[in-house]
């Protein structure tokens, strides 16, 4: 298991279609540009899409690891900017029904590669299933992606409420995605904060905004990250700014700053 600090970030959001995977991938590349060794775990088990998003070919997936056929090093795919991607299976029903112990076993597999990474980014599925909650609960940082739509705001609030009430999470970092102006991003954050301040004992922190940008759509069509395909686009500039902010987040000096903590949280949950 890694003995040096590993930053574990869960990228999540209550609603599907808010751009979690794009945020995960481009944040990872932005951090890699800053010299960080980054691994992205496609934790949308059953509806995996990061390998497709980046045009990568994955011969083996997490399912092969769970079946004991290989370890994580065998399935990791090298992505743009030097990031590494751990692909999940798409359309495999079994992977959408893992219990807590199986989730813990999956993450335990990361023990062998912990010394080769500085940041682990977990791209979660949408919603508030047990699988999503187990990954988010165990991470050090929760980066919640929200768009300026009533359903996105409502679902983000529901996820925050559940994570706070049932898992004791207190701090949530918010990314306003697909906004037309910086002011719209700030206003979106204020909308969410107004509700959480009234009903919950949580701390929301604004991580920044990603603009609505046709370059991002074109990059997706080309199966490339916008940082790779259009590095000077508005979206790419915003993702680099987000990466710099994330890079400045302090790592705890306690065991919480190590990958062991992430694994232990899942193991404890499995035994609960």
TrEMBL record:
What GO biological process terms are annotated to this protein in UniProt? negative regulation of cell division
Q: Which Pfam families match?
A: ParA (PF10609)
Q: Which organism is it from?
A: Venatoribacter cucullus
| MF terms in GO | ATP binding; ATP hydrolysis activity
* Record-linked PANTHER family: CELLULOSE BIOSYNTHESIS PROTEIN BCSQ-RELATED (PTHR43384:SF4), SEPTUM SITE-DETERMINING PROTEIN MIND HOMOLOG, CHLOROPLASTIC-RELATED (PTHR43384)
| An annotated GO cellular component | cytoplasmic side of plasma membrane
Please identify the protein, giving its name as recorded. Answer: P-loop NTPase
Q: Which CDD domains match?
A: FlhG-like
Domain of life of the native organism: Bacteria
């Amino acid at each position: 298991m890694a003995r040096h600090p590993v930053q574990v970030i869960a990228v999540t959001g209550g609603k599907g279609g808010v751009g979690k995977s794009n945020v995960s991938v481009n944040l990872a590349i932005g951090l890699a540009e800053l010299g960080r060794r980054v691994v992205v775990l496609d934790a949308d088990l059953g509806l995996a899409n990061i390998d497709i998003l980046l045009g990568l070919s994955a011969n083996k997936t997490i399912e092969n690891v769970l079946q004991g056929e290989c370890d994580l090093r065998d399935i990791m795919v090298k992505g743009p900017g030097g990031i590494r991607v751990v692909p999940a299976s798409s359309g495999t029903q079994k992977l959408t029904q893992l219990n807590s112990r199986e989730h813990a076993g999956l993450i335990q597999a990361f023990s062998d590669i912990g010394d080769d990474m500085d940041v682990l980014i977990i791209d979660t599925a949408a919603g508030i299933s047990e699988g999503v909650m187990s990954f988010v609960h165990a991470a050090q940082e929760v980066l919640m992606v929200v768009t300026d739509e009533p359903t996105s705001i409502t679902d983000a609030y529901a996820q925050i409420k559940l994570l706070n009430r049932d898992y004791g999470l207190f701090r949530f970092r918010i990314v306003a995605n697909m906004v037309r102006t910086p002011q719209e991003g700030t206003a979106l954050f204020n909308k969410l904060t107004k509700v959480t301040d009234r009903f919950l004992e949580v701390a929301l922190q604004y991580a920044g905004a990603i603009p609505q940008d046709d370059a991002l759509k074109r990059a997706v069509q080309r199966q490339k990250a916008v940082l790779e395909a259009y590095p000077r686009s508005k979206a790419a500039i915003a993702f680099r700014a987000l990466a710099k902010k994330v890079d400045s987040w302090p790592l705890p000096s306690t065991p919480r700053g190590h990958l062991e903590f992430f694994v232990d949280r899942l193991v404890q949950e499995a035994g609960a």
